[in-house]
């Protein structure tokens, strides 16, 4: 597998670095958000104003605008138009995907699989804008190397309800965490079946998933964390080293080492490794990007066992807990956009594949005591 490596290209970063802050904070889709301030990131005071968070209708309107104003063939489709067997959410909303680029390898970008984690949507729309309109060397390189498949709002029902899950419409009222619904005995929700089938059509070479987490402080320093770098099957853990001869175990660490180094050059981004329960590495198999790495075959739709490496980003705060903080809105979006830009360009140029995977241990984290799996905790000495 090439994982998008293209060593013949050389990066010109001047236009990227100069423009990144400008467009990443200029993406509000509804009424203008408050100006950036020096307050806490995000606010711990429970003052989230969800009226300014983009809605399903806002997303449809913005996707339409991006398609109409694109200079580089950005296409917006519903899954009904794509032709998946299931194509709407549990509550009957159309599920949307945008594609752009002419490259031979597909890349999957998704956000807001949890409805109360909104800035993945805005971050992906910001990246789509650049892919559709920016004619600089870097963005041309990305379009020439990859074809992007972007899901800005995976969970429209939960987004409208400002809850993490979707709600089954079978009369039970059961809430389903869509990020635990790919796997054996799963695919309970309509959204899971729909996007899984689309994934089998796309066969991406890698994927990025944008999330939020609770408020967090860095182990050792106590500094507020703004962005955590995550891999849903823990490097060196019980699962990832067994996949593709360990290739994903290496590459996913290289991906985050690269992001960590590049984002450290920007101010006001404080990163660590994503952990749960204080000192546990996540190793869940039911997550969407976990199932991608495992090459899960559901209903015979993936008989060849296609798989792809994947990583995720977690910005601090979420809307339903009231911990998001509007003063950090632009900053939250900006750090996600920068992380995606740097990772995508690093993959396209081959810089990522040259990173030292062992430096994953240098990214701040608590001492690892075990692995949080779908079935409980496995000690680190497994």
From TrEMBL:
Cellular location(s): Secreted
Instruction: Tell me which InterPro entries the record gives.
Output: Peptidase_M14
Q: Which organism is it from?
A: Agromyces humatus
Cofactor(s) this protein cannot do without: Zn(2+)
**What coarse category fits the chief subcellular location reported for this protein?**
secreted
**Alphabetized PROSITE patterns for the sequence:** PEPTIDASE_M14 (PS52035)
Q: What is this protein called?
A: Peptidase M14 domain-containing protein
Q: Name the protein family.
A: Belongs to the peptidase M14 family.
Q: Which UniProt keywords apply?
A: Glycoprotein, Hydrolase, Protease, Secreted, Signal, Virulence
Q: Identify the SUPFAM superfamilies for this entry.
A: Zn-dependent exopeptidases
Location of the Peptidase M14 domain: 52-382
| Signal sequence coordinates | 1-37
């Amino acid at each position: 597998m090439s994982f998008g490596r293209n060593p013949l290209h050389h990066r010109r970063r001047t236009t990227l670095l100069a423009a990144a802050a400008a467009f990443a904070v200029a993406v509000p889709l509804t009424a203008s958000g408050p100006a950036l301030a020096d307050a806490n990131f995000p606010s711990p005071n429970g003052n989230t104003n969800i009226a300014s968070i983009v809605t399903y209708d806002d997303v449809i309107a913005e996707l339409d605008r991006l398609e109409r104003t694109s200079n580089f063939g950005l296409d917006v489709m519903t899954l009904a138009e794509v032709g998946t067997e299931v194509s709407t959410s549990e509550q009957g909303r159309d599920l949307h995907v945008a594609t752009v680029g002419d490259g031979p390898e597909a890349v999957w970008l998704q956000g807001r699989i949890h409805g109360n984690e909104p800035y993945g949507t805005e971050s992906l729309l910001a990246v789509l804008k650049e892919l559709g309109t920016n004619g600089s060397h870097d963005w041309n390189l990305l379009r020439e190397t990859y074809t992007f498949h972007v899901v800005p709002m995976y969970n429209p029902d939960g987004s409208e309800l400002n809850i993490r899950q979707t709600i089954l419409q079978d009369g039970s009222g059961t809430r389903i965490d869509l990020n635990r619904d790919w796997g054996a005995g799963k695919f309970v929700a309509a959204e899971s079946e729909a996007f899984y089938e689309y994934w089998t059509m796309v066969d991406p070479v890698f994927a990025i998933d944008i999330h939020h987490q609770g408020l967090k402080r860095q182990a050792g320093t106590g500094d507020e964390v703004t962005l955590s770098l995550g891999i849903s099957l823990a490097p060196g853990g019980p699962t990832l080293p067994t996949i593709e001869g360990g290739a994903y175990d290496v590459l996913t660490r290289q991906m985050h080492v690269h992001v960590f180094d590049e984002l450290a050059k920007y101010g006001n981004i404080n990163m660590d490794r994503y952990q749960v329960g204080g000192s546990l590495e996540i190793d869940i198999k039911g997550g969407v990007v976990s199932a991608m790495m495992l090459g899960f075959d559901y209903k015979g739709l993936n008989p060849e066992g296609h798989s792809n490496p994947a990583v995720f980003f977690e910005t601090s705060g979420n809307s339903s807990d009231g911990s998001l903080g509007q003063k950090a809105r632009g900053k939250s979006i900006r750090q996600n956009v920068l992380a995606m830009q740097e990772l995508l360009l690093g993959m396209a140029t081959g810089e990522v594949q040259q990173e030292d995977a062992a430096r994953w241990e240098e990214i701040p984290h608590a001492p690892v005591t075990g692995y949080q799996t779908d079935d409980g905790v496995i000690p680190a000495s497994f």
